[in-house]
Amino acid sequence: MNPRLHLLxxxxxxxxxxxxxxxxxxxxxxxxxxxxxxxALWLDDGFEAAFVTFASLFGLAVLAWSYRRHRAMxxxxxxxxxxxxxxxxxxxxxxxxxxxxxxxxxxxxGTLVGLAHLxxxxxxHGHVHxxxxxxxx
Length: 137
Prior knowledge:
The protein is mainly alpha-helical. 80% of the residues lie in helices and 0% in strands.
């Protein structure tokens, strides 16, 4: 894959995940303001599930692609717990219906996903093809 495209995809993933974390942290405030703003559609269950699905597919694809180059598991070690937290907050009804806990878990998960993309960006950008790299040239 083109290295510039790869860096762009990781930057998009990191930015999107961190924006998601901020969004999740602000949900309790947004829930209080939504009736007056008329934008409740943005926070319904379908949108949230679609966003988590997209984040999962995008994150797994980009990190799998990168793993072939740098052979380090650190980024995946952040991504999987982050995605697990996101899916738990979306699919586990007691957590999903608790506004504050839902926001906390979604913020935590989104932050981990964003950090996974940043770690992957660093691993990919810092990788040097020499005699010490783990894959064939």
